[in-house]
Design goal:
Helices cover 27% and strands 33% of the residues. It is built from 3 helices and 5 strands; from the N terminus they run αβββααββ. A hairpin with a 2-residue loop joins strand 4 and strand 5. 28% of the residues are buried.
């Protein structure tokens, strides 16, 4: 499977999983280029939608084993490993519109974050288009609350030979 096909498969699984949740669908869900997901993607988001969900290449390297860089001399004949970030952030205006935030509001926002974290994990590990022996689910990294955006991303290590 090519890197582009892996990105497309993960994106399709992510978007479908988030659409099936009992909460607003994201404003954008898909493959993105570059190093960061830009909060500008929230502009002109209406229809009860909230958030940005993405799949992007975070790193790539010569590899013979999933998730491990092959750093021997002459490694040009090895396969390619990819670290793919799969994440979602949502806008929680309480974090930037209020002077203070109470414990109940904060706990509710954390619950949203945890629900999204679990949904993204489920989208990755249950994606029928991926062979489970060809990827390793890495760590989850929380994002925010900056500018009222809260969420996070999972790292998925894949190998393309």
């Amino acid at each position: 499977m090519t890197a582009s096909a892996i990105l497309a498969a993960l994106s399709a699984c992510l978007c479908e999983t988030l659409e099936d949740m009992d909460r607003p669908a994201p404003c954008f869900c898909g493959v993105v280029p570059g190093t960061l997901v830009i909060p500008d993607m929230f502009e002109d988001c209406g229809g009860g939608r909230n958030g940005v969900a993405w799949v992007r290449i975070a790193a790539t390297y010569p590899s013979q084993t999933v998730g491990v860089a092959y750093q021997n001399v002459g490694n040009c004949s090895s396969g390619i490993g990819y670290d793919i970030e799969v994440g979602v952030v949502r806008e929680h205006s309480d974090y930037y519109e209020a002077d203070t935030i109470d414990a109940d509001d904060s706990a509710a926002i954390v619950q949203w974050q945890v629900d999204d974290m679990e949904a993204v994990r489920r989208a990755i590990v249950c994606c029928d288009s991926l062979d489970e022996k060809d990827f390793i689910l890495g760590m989850y990294q929380p994002i925010g609350p900056q500018g009222g955006l809260v969420g996070g991303a999972w790292m998925v290590h894949v190998s393309v030979v």
